[in-house]
Amino acid sequence: MTSALRRAARAILATAPALYFFIAPAQAKGPDSLSELSTQVSDAVVNISATTVDAKRSSRNEGPNLPPGVGPGAPFDDLFEEFFRRRGQGMPEMPRQRRSSSLGSGFVIDPSGIVITNNHVIADANEVTVILNDGQKLKAEVLGKDQKVDVAVLKVKPEKPLKAVKFGDSDK
Asked: What number of other Cβ atoms are within 10 A of residue 121's Cβ?
């Protein structure tokens, strides 16, 4: 009986590698390396530049609280400027609009100019610019965004169709 078990075990071990090819699910062949993948999609990857202008006063850079009618362009502007200059000070700096920029990346999903990026990159931006791999800068319109999923969809108007990434199909 021992020899019959040994023969059965040898037969199973001999055929097991061959069975793997019949049982294994079919898989699409992907790139052999990260370098190959990078070369395939690099033209579809873009930089995103978002600029936000905050109209609120910034307490960090604010000068003294000036009463209404005092400051650049006010009726007594010359008088105040001379007063501060005589005291060795310049005119108090008026609060400025605060500008901030954020940078991120995204990718083209449709040759007509549809781009996907992260919502946090463009969240409160007044102006969004998409910078293509060749350095071309295109103003972008925000088509939609979802803070919970952190995704945003942008639209640019390219002169010619853009290279887009290809989506995989999990059913294949």
From this structure: 20
Alpha-carbon gap, residue 37 to 31, rounded angstroms: 6
**CB contact at 8 A, 117 and 123:** no
Helix ranges restricted to H, 62-171: 77-86, 119-122
CATH, residue 118: 2.40.10.10
Q: Which residues contact 123 (CB under 8 A, 6 or more apart)?
A: 50, 145, 147
For 19-39, write each residue's pLDDT tens digit: 555 555 555 566 677 777 777
The domain in which residue 125 lies consists of: 32-55+100-167
- Total domains present in the chain: 2
115 and 51 both lie in a single domain: yes
Q: What is the dihedral of CA 11, 14, 17, 18, to 10 degrees?
A: -80
HSE (side-chain half, CA atoms, 13 Å) at 158: 23
Reported pTM: 0.59
Sign of the dihedral through C-alpha 35, 39, 44, 47:
positive
